[in-house]
Amino acid sequence: MLILTKSVPSVSIFRMLKIRLQRTGRNQEKTFRLVLTESKNSTKSGKFLEVLGNHDFRVKNGTKINKERVLYWMSKGVKATPTVHNLFLSEKIITGKKINVLPKKTVPKKEEVKAEAPKAEAPKKEEEKAAA
User: Fold this and answer.
1) Does 113 reside within a domain?
2) Rounded to an integer, what distance in angstroms lies between the CA atom of residue 46 and that of residue 27?
3) Any idea what the CATH number is for the domain that residue 39 is in?
């Protein structure tokens, strides 16, 4: 008789984990959960490995973070999203510089600006020749 057993992955298998904010709460009343999840899971999937705390942006002191667990997971190599990284900095859980989370504006390249300037000057010279 053949017995099939479910194989359990060993602990040494590395998964890309992240500390993210997961939105909870009602409409217009946003509250967030700090969760440890795989990087491939979407924030709305509801799949997470551990709840590390919660955060409410509406309340001045509305942050409760399990500092010991956050530092443990970060020591294992888990990365935090930029917003969570900035939250940890403001709560003095980690040290470093804040990360800019705003989208970058696209600035036209200098070559394109220089190429457009001579085109604008060329019609003026033609008008002067016609007037003379």
Assistant:
1) no
2) 18
3) 3.30.1320.10
Count of domains for the chain: 1
- Whether pTM > 0.70 for this model: the answer is no
3-state SS class at 50: strand
Strands (E), 56-132: 63-65, 79-80
3-state helix, strand, coil in the chain (%, to 5): 30, 25, 45
Domain ranges, residue 49: 17-90
List the pLDDT tens digit at each of the 132 positions of the chain: 555 544 444 444 457 888 898 888 889 888 888 988 888 777 677 788 888 999 888 888 888 999 999 999 999 888 999 999 999 998 898 899 998 888 877 766 676 555 565 555 555 655 665 665
